[in-house]
Design a protein that fits this description.
Length: about 190
């Protein structure tokens, strides 16, 4: 069985990336992580990926200044060089232009730490606590040009508990993120059927 070739884009610690790498260690998992790419040279996740024997690349955005598309053209070229089929954003902290989003339409996914459409954007756990919601969680969705707006592929709920603060709630959501992302990536590979 040939497995889908997946690149993970990160900017930071890469715990979701690590969860995908872990899931893909199972030969029966339908995807393999062939590349981890970061816009930040010292992103912690790069060390984890290298330790797992996965190819890494850094394409810093700073040299491109305001030309976001030029940065993305470099990224796209690197993805193609690795023969990537699917791109998984995992804490990649750049808003993408329509260029990259449209190039990878239907094949680029993101994980977001809230039950979208609630709480798009940043500081989702704090905002959920302030809003007093009973249920919070995470979402995997296809990436479209609207930030955190694409079609939802899966969600996992987390109950908000008395005494929760941002860190405690965030940690429970993160645990669910790691399971959800691996599941949704496998589902997408199945749905694409190639
Ligand atoms: C996660 O909460 C993810 O949902 C969000 O950014 C965070 C990245 O964490 N998009 P990590 O780098 O995967 O640990």
């Amino acid at each position: 069985m040939s497995r889908a070739r997946v690149a993970v884009l990160i900017s930071g610690r890469g715990s979701n990336m690590a969860a995908l790498i872990e899931a893909a260690k199972d030969p029966a998992y339908p995807a393999e992580i062939v590349l981890v790419l970061s816009n930040i040279a010292d992103a912690g996740g790069l060390d984890i990926a290298q330790a797992a024997g996965i190819e890494t690349a850094v394409i810093a955005h700073a040299p491109f200044g305001k030309d976001r598309e030029a940065h993305e053209r470099m990224i796209d070229a690197r993805l193609r060089q690795s023969g990537v089929h699917i791109v998984a954003l995992a804490g990649y902290m750049r808003v993408l232009t329509p260029y990259l989003v449209e190039t990878w339409a239907g094949r680029m996914i993101n994980i977001h730490p809230s039950l979208l459409p609630a709480f798009p954007g940043l500081h989702t756990h704090q905002r959920a606590l302030e809003a007093g919601v009973a249920k919070h969680g995470c979402t995997v969705h296809l990436v479209t040009t609207g930030v955190d707006e694409g079609p939802i592929l899966g969600q996992a709920e987390v109950e908000v508990l008395p005494g929760d603060d941002e860190d405690r709630l965030g940690a429970r959501v993160l645990e669910q993120e790691h399971k959800l992302y691996a599941r949704c990536l496998a589902d997408l590979v199945g749905a694409l059927g190639d």
